[in-house]
Amino acid sequence: MAVDQGAIRQGSAQRPGARQDPRLDWWREARFGLFIHWGLYAIPAGEWKGEFVPGIGEWIMHRARIPVAEYERLAGQFNPVRFDAAEWVSLARRAGQKYIVITAKHHDGFCMFDSRWTDYDIVDATPFNRDPLRELAAECQRQGLRLCFYYSQTQDWHHPDGDGNDWDYDEPKKDFAGYVESYVKPQVRELLTSYGPIGLIWFDTPKRITLEQSQSLVDLVHEIQPACLVNGRVGNHIGDYASTRDNVIPSELLHADWETPATINDTWGFKKDDHNWKSPQDLIRKLVDIVSKGGNYLLNVGPTAEGVIPQPSVDRLRAMGQWLEVNGESVYGTRPGPLQGLDWCRTTIKPGQLYLHVLDWPARGELRLPGTPSEVTSAHLLADPARAALPVSRESGGVLIKGPATPPDAIDTVVVLTVD
Ligand code: H79
After folding, report:
1. Which CATH architecture group holds 337-419?
2. What is the predicted pLDDT for the residue at 14?
């Protein structure tokens, strides 16, 4: 089990001065990324030998204690001929996502790239015989997104010395340090030298990794690609930014660089029986909530073994993209606004502008703001191309803005306030 899921306190973002680090500029601007969990687990898709296996799909090998020799045989069946890198990248771009993080290697140990350090990879072990990371790298270049890799540095249920598999291997006999030195590091180097510029490496479940080992991974990444970021789950409270626990949104604003990794349904890797899809409204509001507290939203899809992103995920990402097309100005490159902790709204800011995200439209459209730190000089709806001025008046202890009587956007109506 994961001991450390990446507490929010992790990461050098907490260090004084870290906020000036220009390497994080693109990531702070981006706010919204696509997570892709794709691997052999998409074949069983939550079912093993006729039984539905509870829990998250990519954990099936662990949860069902599938022997390596048996799980390995999935590779021979993996032939995702419907995979289309251009389509995936275009989906993310149209959803308003600025970076993609894909599983290069998850805990099951199967490598979704052509690695020279193992034959247990998508090019050497499957009939597919293509390297999807290479195709995605080319498409991300073409379409202007940053490609990033998830890499499970501690758990590897296939490698005899990796962490986590105690049903094939004897845990005390494992040479974990040897695994880190002679397998993890060469593979991380490979990922950073074969696919062009990489936005960040997303490590996960540090568990038994030591501070020296975590630090040497951070150093390795920065040595090869100085601009490449490392997430906090590299372990031992280091890294360039913090990841919250999976699917957890902090209750308040955090003065750190942080990100919530999250699912659209309940699984990361594809599961055929998981239909618990969050609504577009829920997802858009989660994005706004996260951004208003200073975080990024890394939202996951789990493609099928054929290489298809499930239609419910596609539909939701499109809906988010449509909302962002109109309202993106209030999300990208913003910082948390001054009004925090209110049920009915969220706020984000840019110099000279305060974006009021109204979730519950008030009766008669009377938007009452408790004292804002700066003077509001004008207001208009972000979705209004004419930018028609909304009446602004001062009242005791705050500001009253008179909007339309009915909510212009049932999900989140953004009111732009020009402030001194
Ligand atoms: O990659 C995704 C997850 O697979 C990974 N993090 C995200 C981004 C992750 N690794 N560990 N965990 C999440 C904690 C998971 C614990 C559980 Fe289980 C897995 C609970 C249910 C399935 C282990 C196996 C404990 C019970 C069964």
Report:
1. Sandwich (2.60)
2. 44
